[in-house]
């Protein structure tokens, strides 16, 4: 298994991406520390992991509260050590869709503030313990909104959300350069939109196809593969990047956009 005997902290583990990644980490042998603000959702993920033979612990952690984050990271580090940290908390993608010229200051700055604050707090909390041990992997999460082509940028009007995703990617590179010499890797995952997380009225049909003229069809047609990524693909990639098999990968953004964004 890729992550056998590893300990992984997942922030936002009750959400779609965080839960999928936590389950993938557990399948690959990691003990997973699930954190978030809604215990019921965390407990549901933990039950799934346990039923599949994995090991998970749950803690209510506000990933924007430095004191709570630091205390939780210290408790995990002292008891088990932190090998992997992954942040998947929501950075207010719902505030997209309004042109910048018509957007309020709060709607613009909220995603930027949330994204930069949570990634800074969680990543540095883990990194302090990792550098002491001389090893560890920190995974951040962006989206294709950071690098949309003009066609899609015109449609989505990503506003502060796009800026926030770009900031996370830059933060990843800056932190990786600082902690790399001390044995810690930092990698950002950048998926495109994940239809499995959409409301039913926007999701594809049972064959995975979108209706002609729908936003989903428009987005899928803009990718090299002619489809959008799957949640499980993001989760499996996260597990691989966190493992020693990806030991040479750091200070980069893993493109999981099915080719909608070309680097």
Please describe what this structure looks like:
The longest helix has 29 residues, at 105-133. Helix 1 (16-27) packs across helix 8 (231-242), helix 3 (66-79) runs parallel beside helix 4 (105-133) and helix 4 runs parallel beside helix 6 (159-179). The chain is globular, with a radius of gyration of 18 Å. A 7-stranded parallel β-sheet has the order 3-2-1-4-5-6-7, sandwiched between helices. It has one domain (7-194, 229-256): NAD(P)-binding Rossmann-like Domain (Rossmann fold). It is of the alpha/beta class and 263 residues long. Strand 4 (84-87), helix 4 (105-133) and strand 5 (136-141) form a beta-alpha-beta unit. It is built from 8 helices and 7 strands.
What would you report as the Rg, rounded to the nearest angstrom? 18 Å
CATH homologous superfamily grouping: NAD(P)-binding Rossmann-like Domain
Task: List the total number of helices.
Answer: 8
Question: What is the chain-wise order of helices and strands?
Answer: EHEHEHEHEHHEHHE
List the defining traits of the structure above.
263 residues, Rossmann fold, 44% helix, seven-stranded parallel sheet, alpha/beta, single chain, globular
In short:
This protein is about 45% helix and about 15% strand. The longest helix has 29 residues, at about 105-135. By secondary structure, the protein is α/β, with parallel strands linked by helices.
Present the secondary structure layout.
Blueprint: E1 7-11, H1 16-27, E2 31-36, H2 39-51, E3 55-60, H3 66-79, E4 84-87, H4 105-133, E5 136-141, H5 150-156, H6 159-179, E6 184-191, H7 215-221, H8 231-242, E7 252-256
Parallel strand pairs: 1-2, 1-4, 2-3, 4-5, 5-6, 6-7
């Amino acid at each position: 298994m890729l992550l056998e005997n590893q300990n992984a902290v997942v922030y936002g583990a009750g959400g779609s991406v965080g839960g999928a990644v936590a389950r993938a980490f557990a399948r690959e042998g990691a003990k997973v520390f699930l954190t978030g603000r809604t215990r019921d959702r965390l407990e549901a993920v933990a039950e799934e992991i346990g039923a599949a033979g994995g090991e998970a612990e749950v803690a209510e952690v506000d990933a924007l509260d430095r004191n709570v984050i630091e205390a939780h990271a210290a408790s995990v580090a002292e008891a088990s050590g932190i090998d992997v940290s992954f942040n998947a908390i929501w950075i207010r993608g719902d505030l997209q869709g309004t042109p910048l010229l018509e957007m309020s200051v709060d709607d613009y700055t909220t995603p930027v503030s949330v994204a930069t604050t949570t990634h800074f707090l969680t990543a540095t909390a883990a990194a302090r313990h990792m550098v002491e041990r001389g090893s560890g992997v920190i995974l951040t999460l962006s989206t294709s909104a950071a690098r949309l082509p003009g066609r899609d940028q015109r449609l989505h009007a990503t506003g502060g959300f796009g800026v926030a995703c770009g900031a996370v990617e830059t933060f990843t590179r800056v932190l990786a350069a600082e902690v790399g010499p001390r044995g810690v890797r930092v990698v950002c995952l950048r998926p495109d939109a994940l239809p499995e997380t959409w409301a039913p009225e926007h999701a594809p049909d049972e064959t995975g196809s979108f209706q002609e003229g729908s936003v989903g069809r428009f987005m899928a047609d803009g990718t090299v593969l002619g489809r959008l990524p799957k949640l499980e693909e993001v989760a499996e990639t996260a597990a691989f990047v966190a493992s020693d098999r990806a030991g040479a990968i750091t200070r980069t953004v893993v493109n999981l956009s099915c080719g909608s964004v070309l680097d």
